[in-house]
Amino acid sequence: MPEKRGPVPVALIGIAVIIGILVAAFTVPAAVTRGEIHRAEFSEAAGLQSGDLVTVAGVEAGRVESVELAGDRVLVTFDVKDAWVGDRTTASIEVKTLLGAKYLELDPQGDAELASDAVIPLERTASPFDVVEAFNGLSSTIDGLDTDQLATSLDTLSETFSGTAPEVRGALDGLSRLSQTIASRDEEIRRLLAGTQNLSGVLADRAPEFERLLRDGNLLLAEIQRRKDAISALLDGTRALSVQLRGLVADNQEQLTPTLEALDGVAEILQRNRDNLDLALERQAVFTRLFSNAVGNGRWFDNYICGLVLPPLGPINEGGC
Length: 321
Prior knowledge:
The chain crosses the membrane at residues 12-32. The protein has 321 residues and is of the alpha/beta class.
């Protein structure tokens, strides 16, 4: 007949198993969930950081592993899971939010799968549009235009083709009116461009502050993501713990039932003892009060006992007790 195990060893084994499951849930290596690693070259990082999303057709497919400087270009390493990446795939850094968060968008192309050691070249990648640089370029270009000379040239062109067909002459008249409008609005356009240039300068001066703001926001989002992952792992471990506890209770119910019944008996005995102690304390209070009255007047017992002598009978014991 097999020897029956006690509840204590079984409980210790169950606790050890549960601790092992929780440790495994929190220490699963990242390589288990990481997809295939690829790399791409970009002319600039444009604010892309490690941990940013990688999407294929708008669906999350991986994460950016690292962003490193490689000579005159930036090398972005990323992983892709459950998505096909062709040998002519293009990649672009896109703007995710108005605060400047970025993500990596892939457009899978080609006939064969992209090799794991292959790099998407600079010719098939694109960085986001820089508004500050565009304003600076526009301002510099228009500042170099001679609006008076442009108006004179358009007027000369209109006069030269004045004898042509009505359709051409109408178009040239429109050009002439356009040149006059440009010439009359030259000062306003210059002020507008000067203001635009000042705005671009302010934005450029505030670029470090914007970068710090975005960097701090990215750190906050990364910390929130880490907390979310930790809570998810904790929930998974709790579910596994619940399953193990159910199995432990089911396997050891016969051993635990007598133990629980014995604990109930011990609890009843302790309750009775507690009631007895309460009663003893209650009666002890009366005894203590009377004893204090007897010895409270000095180093002797001072008490008064009535009824030991006869009741008053005429001249005998006239004072009674």
